[in-house]
Amino acid sequence: MRDISKYQGIIPAFYACYAEDGTVSVDHTQAWAEYLVKKGVKGVYVGGSSGECIYQRVEERKKQLEALMEVAKGKMTVIAHVACNNTEDSCELAAHAQKHGVDAVASIPPIYFHLPEHSIAQYWNDISSAAPDTDFIIYNIPQLAGTALTMPLFHEMLKNPRVAGVKNSSMPIQDIQMFKMYGGNDFAVFNGPDEQLVGGLAIGADGAIGGTYGVMPELYLKIFELCKKGEYEKACPIQYDADKIIYEMCSCKGNMYAAIKEIIKRREGIELGGVRKPLSGLFEEDMVHVERCVKMIDEAISKYC
Ligand SMILES: CC(=O)N[C@H](C=O)[C@@H](O)[C@H](O)[C@H](O)CO
Ligand SMILES: CC(=O)C(=O)O
């Protein structure tokens, strides 16, 4: 039996942390990691969508992970997303992540070409073989990757004993139930869409990985605590407020992560830099949304936490 307790909790997706000149910042990465440790989150998911992985070079992703591990090791679960869309670079990052002691490596399927399932399985198993002593987590995000984790592909992947979980970001929460049912009790399924965390937990998710957890961790930690006690009716109003905040962040013309980093700077005084092109930074007209979000987050935290 695999012990999945290290995956049972709120796991913010770690934001890319840039210096003023746009390079990956060790200082900002470590300040952000320390903040999340203090907030009491279960772990972090580094180098995923929120980490702007597809806009970073292999060396930059290594630098960010190394900086993070100096702070996080032994204090938080670390899941490193290592996919680069080509097998060789992904394997290099997987081996690097294992060397630095992560708890798991994770990967989206290869994007752009719609490859047959045997090629996707080969891609994932190659990456997993490059980190042979480390758990492997499948990242299912069909709306962005263009390929879904089907049941036949899932069953094929379960033949690899290192496959320890699925981060499920597809919209039907039913998918969480199916992966959990066939994966078993010692297999970790993570809720992806933050907007339906309560639903994902109710149907059986063990933990949750999310792009908006970092900007308001208190709210999601509270939702998780209540849901684990079965107090769903108390968790729902917090979910509804969190969703309102997400919709407000997404009303910006600039990218959501640019809004998130600005909100964090205003609320917590922590600088994470901007976002990398082709993602857009914030526009003047976005500031009204940012201000609204700051206020809504402050109010929700004082109301529920
Ligand atoms: C499509 C996407 O990026 N999904 C993320 C991961 O599952 C979520 O955590 C979102 O960032 C979040 O639900 C906000 O829409
Ligand atoms: C948003 C998210 O979960 C990611 O960074 O992949």
Automatic annotation (TrEMBL):
Pfam families listed in its UniProt record: DHDPS
The organism's place on the tree of life at top rank: Bacteria
Keyword tags: Lyase
InterPro entries (alphabetical): Aldolase_TIM, DapA-like
PROSITE patterns (alphabetical): PROKAR_LIPOPROTEIN (PS51257)
Sequence similarity: Belongs to the DapA family.
Protein name: Dihydrodipicolinate synthase family protein
